[in-house]
């Protein structure tokens, strides 16, 4: 667990220099679709994200996470509001990020227990690729830390390929920590 936290802290420090890419769902009338597969020792999950940017400081997102090849587990939904606080909007030129607040219908551990989530996302353009760090803390019947670091690159016009490393850790003794590769596509339209 210490190695994971250290890796995430180093990523934040690397990303905190000048970032130029847009954050996940920010931008005037921006619509985003992302579909990824999370393959881990705890099982495989498909995640579908839909996002809408109201303006360059606020946006909304909805995610559906569905397990497959796992008996007794159900899909969960997450709704989030992404924003840059009023007091931080002037600093966006040097540090591209958004905070997130939202609700969840369930968690990886218990799909029947709803809860709240908070987090942030950072993206940085690297030549023709995009590096991102996405962190969430979900509080429900159990506390879950969900973090992902990865890259996006254009595979066709308007279509980005996504590959990352994801960690979902819980204080539930039966679940523990799920780590694995997250991969899929991202489309802006």
Distance between the termini: 38 Å
Look up the CATH topology.
Porin
Number of helices: 1
Which descriptor suits the 3D outline? globular
Under the CATH scheme, which class? Mainly Beta
Report the uncertain regions: 6-23
Strands of the biggest beta sheet: in what spatial order?
1-2-3-4-5-6-7-8-9-10
The portion of residues assigned to helices is under 10%
Q: Indicate how many domains the architecture comprises.
A: 1
Radius of gyration: 16 Å
Query: What profile does the largest beta sheet have?
Result: 10 strands, antiparallel, barrel
User: What is the architecture at the second tier of CATH?
Assistant: Beta Barrel
Would you count the extended β strands for me?
10
| Percentage beta strand | over 45%
* SS-based class: mainly beta
Keywords: Signal
Signal peptide: 1-21
Protein name: Outer membrane protein beta-barrel domain-containing protein
